[in-house]
Each structure stands twice: as structure tokens, then as C-alpha cells.
Amino acid sequence: MAAELDAAGPQTSAPGPDVRNRQVGLRFLSLRDVLDRLTISRSLLYELIKDPVQPFPTPIHLGRRSVWVEQEVEDYMRAVLATARP
Asked: Does the reported pTM lie above 0.85?
């Protein structure tokens, strides 16, 4: 695919280098990955998503799958830790 992009020549609508560098680390986590990271049950995860005080990030739906952005999950974990240990 990269070869196809190079063969097409320069693109005027391509994002700048700083945007490309930020997107390199973008990763989706499956439900199982999220549950393993948080060491909680599936039902508790969905309760946390509905929490009005500190809601867990909502999933992104890719077809029939639900995935979470890794950075959002990590940010949530840091926020919980900061709340628990001020």
C-alpha cells in the first residue's frame, strides 16, 4: 500500500508530518484486552461506561465489533489513580 501511495505522486491533502507521528501510536483494544488491563468483569465495565461521575470511554463500533482507543483507556486509568491517590 505504501508503494501505491508513493507511485501516485505528491498529495496536496496529506496531513503534515506532526499529524502522522501522532497517529503512529494509535491502537485499538478489544473487549478482552480492556478487561485484562482493568482486571474487571464485563458487567462492571459497562457499569463504568454509564458512571455519571467518572465515565469510562465509550467503545467505537467497527462493524459488529466494539473496540476502545488504547490512549483513552490509559488516560482513564491515570485519572482513577490520581483520584485515589491525590
From this structure: no
H/E segment holding residue 55: none
- Would 58 be classed as within a structural domain? yes
What would the pLDDT profile of 11-45 be if each residue is shown by its tens digit?
445 555 554 445 567 999 999 999 999 999 999 99
Q: How big is the CA angle at 51 (ends 35 and 53), to the nearest 5 degrees? A: 125
What is the domain count for the chain?
1
Does residue 82 form part of some domain?
Answer: yes
Judge whether 70 lies within some domain: yes
User: Read out DSSP for 26-42?
Assistant: --EE-HHHHHHHHT--H
Instruction: Read off the C-alpha cell for 76.
Output: 482513564
Angle made by CA atoms 30, 31, 35, in degrees to the nearest 5:
120
CATH number of the domain to which 86 belongs: 1.10.238.160
